[in-house]
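Journal club side-thread
Mid-discussion, someone asked how the predicted structure for our own chain would compare to the paper's figures. Pasting it here so we can look after the session.
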Amino acid sequence: MTNDVAEATGTALLSELARGAQLAFSNAEQLFREASLLRESGAKNRALFLHQISMEECAKVDLLGAWATSLLMGTPVDISKLARAMANHKAKNRVNAYMLKPGDDEINAREQADWKGALDTFKAMQAAFHERSNSAKNASLYVDFVEGIFVTPDERITDDMVAEIAETNRIYLGLMHPKVQMLNRWETDSAPVKKMLATFRQRMEELREQHPDEPDRALAIVLEEMFASELVKRPASAPEDTT
Protein backbone atom coordinates (compact mmCIF):
# COMPACT_ATOMS: atom_id res chain seq x y z
CA MET A 1 0.00 0.00 0.00
CA THR A 2 1.44 3.38 -1.02
CA ASN A 3 1.67 6.30 1.40
CA ASP A 4 -1.07 8.17 -0.50
CA VAL A 5 -3.45 5.20 -0.36
CA ALA A 6 -2.66 4.58 3.30
CA GLU A 7 -3.29 8.25 4.08
CA ALA A 8 -6.62 8.20 2.23
CA THR A 9 -7.65 4.98 3.99
CA GLY A 10 -6.71 6.44 7.38
CA THR A 11 -8.63 9.63 6.67
CA ALA A 12 -11.75 7.70 5.66
CA LEU A 13 -11.53 5.53 8.78
CA LEU A 14 -11.03 8.55 11.05
CA SER A 15 -14.11 10.13 9.51
CA GLU A 16 -16.13 6.97 10.13
CA LEU A 17 -14.91 6.72 13.72
CA ALA A 18 -16.00 10.31 14.34
CA ARG A 19 -19.38 9.61 12.72
CA GLY A 20 -19.80 6.47 14.81
CA ALA A 21 -19.10 8.37 18.01
CA GLN A 22 -21.71 10.99 17.09
CA LEU A 23 -24.29 8.30 16.29
CA ALA A 24 -23.59 6.40 19.52
CA PHE A 25 -23.83 9.59 21.58
CA SER A 26 -27.10 10.64 19.92
CA ASN A 27 -28.53 7.19 20.59
CA ALA A 28 -27.35 7.37 24.21
CA GLU A 29 -29.17 10.69 24.62
CA GLN A 30 -32.35 9.26 23.12
CA LEU A 31 -32.17 6.21 25.38
CA PHE A 32 -31.71 8.49 28.39
CA ARG A 33 -34.84 10.48 27.47
CA GLU A 34 -36.88 7.31 26.94
CA ALA A 35 -35.64 5.85 30.21
CA SER A 36 -36.67 9.04 31.99
CA LEU A 37 -40.16 8.81 30.53
CA LEU A 38 -40.48 5.19 31.60
CA ARG A 39 -39.34 6.06 35.10
CA GLU A 40 -41.89 8.88 35.32
CA SER A 41 -44.66 6.48 34.24
CA GLY A 42 -43.68 4.00 36.96
CA ALA A 43 -41.93 1.46 34.72
CA LYS A 44 -38.77 1.46 36.81
CA ASN A 45 -37.50 -1.94 35.64
CA ARG A 46 -37.41 -1.07 31.95
CA ALA A 47 -36.10 2.40 32.82
CA LEU A 48 -33.06 0.81 34.45
CA PHE A 49 -32.51 -1.35 31.38
CA LEU A 50 -32.52 1.63 29.01
CA HIS A 51 -30.22 3.65 31.28
CA GLN A 52 -27.76 0.75 31.24
CA ILE A 53 -27.88 0.52 27.43
CA SER A 54 -27.41 4.29 27.23
CA MET A 55 -24.27 3.99 29.36
CA GLU A 56 -22.96 1.23 27.11
CA GLU A 57 -23.46 3.55 24.13
CA CYS A 58 -21.45 6.17 26.03
CA ALA A 59 -18.65 3.63 26.39
CA LYS A 60 -18.56 3.30 22.61
CA VAL A 61 -17.59 6.97 22.37
CA ASP A 62 -14.58 6.30 24.60
CA LEU A 63 -13.66 3.16 22.66
CA LEU A 64 -13.88 4.98 19.33
CA GLY A 65 -11.79 7.82 20.72
CA ALA A 66 -9.11 5.32 21.72
CA TRP A 67 -9.15 3.73 18.26
CA ALA A 68 -8.92 7.17 16.63
CA THR A 69 -5.95 8.06 18.85
CA SER A 70 -4.19 4.83 17.86
CA LEU A 71 -4.88 5.54 14.21
CA LEU A 72 -3.40 9.04 14.43
CA MET A 73 -0.35 7.66 16.24
CA GLY A 74 0.28 5.39 13.27
CA THR A 75 -0.90 2.14 14.86
CA PRO A 76 -2.74 -0.17 12.43
CA VAL A 77 -6.44 -0.55 13.21
CA ASP A 78 -7.99 -4.01 12.95
CA ILE A 79 -11.58 -3.47 11.82
CA SER A 80 -12.65 -6.93 12.98
CA LYS A 81 -11.43 -6.20 16.51
CA LEU A 82 -13.25 -2.87 16.44
CA ALA A 83 -16.50 -4.61 15.47
CA ARG A 84 -16.12 -7.13 18.30
CA ALA A 85 -15.40 -4.39 20.83
CA MET A 86 -18.57 -2.53 19.84
CA ALA A 87 -20.68 -5.63 20.57
CA ASN A 88 -18.90 -6.72 23.76
CA HIS A 89 -20.96 -5.78 26.83
CA LYS A 90 -18.13 -6.68 29.19
CA ALA A 91 -15.67 -4.47 27.31
CA LYS A 92 -18.07 -1.52 27.45
CA ASN A 93 -18.71 -1.92 31.16
CA ARG A 94 -14.98 -2.15 31.79
CA VAL A 95 -14.48 1.10 29.87
CA ASN A 96 -17.17 2.80 31.94
CA ALA A 97 -15.44 1.64 35.12
CA TYR A 98 -12.63 4.11 34.33
CA MET A 99 -15.06 6.91 35.19
CA LEU A 100 -15.73 5.57 38.68
CA LYS A 101 -14.16 7.21 41.69
CA PRO A 102 -11.07 5.27 42.85
CA GLY A 103 -11.55 3.30 46.04
CA ASP A 104 -9.48 3.78 49.19
CA ASP A 105 -7.38 0.68 48.53
CA GLU A 106 -6.43 1.90 45.05
CA ILE A 107 -5.62 5.40 46.33
CA ASN A 108 -3.47 3.99 49.13
CA ALA A 109 -1.60 1.76 46.69
CA ARG A 110 -0.89 4.73 44.42
CA GLU A 111 0.37 6.83 47.31
CA GLN A 112 2.77 4.02 48.23
CA ALA A 113 3.90 3.67 44.58
CA ASP A 114 2.51 0.14 44.59
CA TRP A 115 1.50 0.23 40.92
CA LYS A 116 0.83 -3.49 40.63
CA GLY A 117 -1.38 -3.33 43.71
CA ALA A 118 -3.23 -0.29 42.34
CA LEU A 119 -3.76 -2.01 38.98
CA ASP A 120 -4.94 -5.25 40.58
CA THR A 121 -7.38 -3.30 42.77
CA PHE A 122 -8.74 -1.42 39.77
CA LYS A 123 -9.14 -4.62 37.75
CA ALA A 124 -11.11 -6.15 40.62
CA MET A 125 -13.33 -3.05 40.68
CA GLN A 126 -13.81 -3.32 36.90
CA ALA A 127 -14.91 -6.94 37.20
CA ALA A 128 -17.27 -6.14 40.06
CA PHE A 129 -18.76 -3.18 38.17
CA HIS A 130 -19.40 -5.32 35.09
CA GLU A 131 -20.98 -8.08 37.16
CA ARG A 132 -23.19 -5.63 39.05
CA SER A 133 -24.23 -3.77 35.89
CA ASN A 134 -24.93 -6.89 33.87
CA SER A 135 -26.85 -8.58 36.71
CA ALA A 136 -29.06 -5.52 37.20
CA LYS A 137 -29.71 -5.27 33.46
CA ASN A 138 -30.81 -8.92 33.28
CA ALA A 139 -32.83 -8.63 36.49
CA SER A 140 -34.75 -5.71 34.97
CA LEU A 141 -36.04 -7.96 32.16
CA TYR A 142 -36.40 -11.53 33.33
CA VAL A 143 -38.08 -13.70 35.94
CA ASP A 144 -35.19 -15.56 37.58
CA PHE A 145 -34.82 -18.55 39.87
CA VAL A 146 -32.77 -17.32 42.84
CA GLU A 147 -31.93 -19.40 45.92
CA GLY A 148 -34.82 -21.79 45.37
CA ILE A 149 -37.56 -19.28 44.51
CA PHE A 150 -38.74 -17.41 41.43
CA VAL A 151 -38.37 -13.63 41.55
CA THR A 152 -39.73 -10.97 39.22
CA PRO A 153 -38.04 -7.75 38.02
CA ASP A 154 -40.35 -5.79 40.35
CA GLU A 155 -38.95 -7.71 43.30
CA ARG A 156 -35.31 -7.15 42.35
CA ILE A 157 -35.17 -3.61 40.96
CA THR A 158 -35.62 -0.81 43.51
CA ASP A 159 -36.33 2.88 43.10
CA ASP A 160 -32.92 3.64 44.60
CA MET A 161 -31.20 1.49 41.97
CA VAL A 162 -32.96 3.38 39.18
CA ALA A 163 -32.19 6.77 40.74
CA GLU A 164 -28.51 5.85 41.04
CA ILE A 165 -28.11 4.62 37.48
CA ALA A 166 -30.06 7.60 36.09
CA GLU A 167 -27.66 10.02 37.80
CA THR A 168 -24.62 8.04 36.67
CA ASN A 169 -25.97 7.99 33.12
CA ARG A 170 -26.48 11.77 33.21
CA ILE A 171 -22.87 12.28 34.34
CA TYR A 172 -21.51 9.94 31.65
CA LEU A 173 -23.42 11.75 28.92
CA GLY A 174 -21.89 15.03 30.11
CA LEU A 175 -18.41 13.51 29.97
CA MET A 176 -18.87 12.06 26.49
CA HIS A 177 -20.15 15.18 24.73
CA PRO A 178 -16.75 16.96 24.68
CA LYS A 179 -15.14 13.76 23.36
CA VAL A 180 -17.56 13.66 20.43
CA GLN A 181 -16.69 17.29 19.68
CA MET A 182 -12.98 16.44 19.92
CA LEU A 183 -13.32 13.65 17.35
CA ASN A 184 -15.20 16.02 15.04
CA ARG A 185 -12.30 18.47 15.28
CA TRP A 186 -9.81 15.72 14.54
CA GLU A 187 -11.79 14.74 11.45
CA THR A 188 -11.68 18.33 10.18
CA ASP A 189 -7.98 18.86 10.84
CA SER A 190 -5.91 15.96 12.13
CA ALA A 191 -2.43 17.43 11.48
CA PRO A 192 -2.05 19.26 14.83
CA VAL A 193 -3.15 16.26 16.90
CA LYS A 194 -0.89 13.92 14.92
CA LYS A 195 2.07 16.13 15.75
CA MET A 196 1.02 16.36 19.40
CA LEU A 197 0.55 12.59 19.73
CA ALA A 198 3.92 11.89 18.11
CA THR A 199 5.59 14.22 20.59
CA PHE A 200 3.57 12.73 23.46
CA ARG A 201 4.53 9.18 22.52
CA GLN A 202 8.23 9.99 22.19
CA ARG A 203 8.33 11.94 25.45
CA MET A 204 6.41 9.24 27.34
CA GLU A 205 8.90 6.60 26.16
CA GLU A 206 11.78 8.78 27.39
CA LEU A 207 10.16 9.39 30.77
CA ARG A 208 9.22 5.74 31.25
CA GLU A 209 12.88 4.86 30.84
CA GLN A 210 13.84 7.56 33.35
CA HIS A 211 11.10 6.60 35.85
CA PRO A 212 10.42 2.86 35.29
CA ASP A 213 8.86 2.44 38.74
CA GLU A 214 6.78 5.65 38.71
CA PRO A 215 4.36 5.62 35.74
CA ASP A 216 2.12 8.26 37.37
CA ARG A 217 5.09 10.62 37.69
CA ALA A 218 6.03 10.12 34.04
CA LEU A 219 2.48 10.91 32.94
CA ALA A 220 2.26 13.92 35.26
CA ILE A 221 5.49 15.35 33.86
CA VAL A 222 4.48 15.02 30.22
CA LEU A 223 1.03 16.49 30.87
CA GLU A 224 2.57 19.42 32.75
CA GLU A 225 4.95 20.04 29.85
CA MET A 226 2.11 19.94 27.33
CA PHE A 227 0.04 22.34 29.45
CA ALA A 228 2.97 24.75 29.79
CA SER A 229 3.49 24.60 26.03
CA GLU A 230 -0.14 25.55 25.40
CA LEU A 231 0.16 28.51 27.80
CA VAL A 232 3.16 29.81 25.88
CA LYS A 233 1.11 29.74 22.66
CA ARG A 234 -1.57 32.04 24.14
CA PRO A 235 -1.48 35.56 22.65
CA ALA A 236 -0.06 38.23 24.93
CA SER A 237 -3.18 40.35 24.35
CA ALA A 238 -5.56 37.70 25.64
CA PRO A 239 -8.12 39.32 27.96
CA GLU A 240 -7.93 38.50 31.64
CA ASP A 241 -10.69 36.52 33.30
CA THR A 242 -12.52 39.01 35.50
CA THR A 243 -15.27 36.67 36.67
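Post-session note: The longest strand covers residues 144-146.
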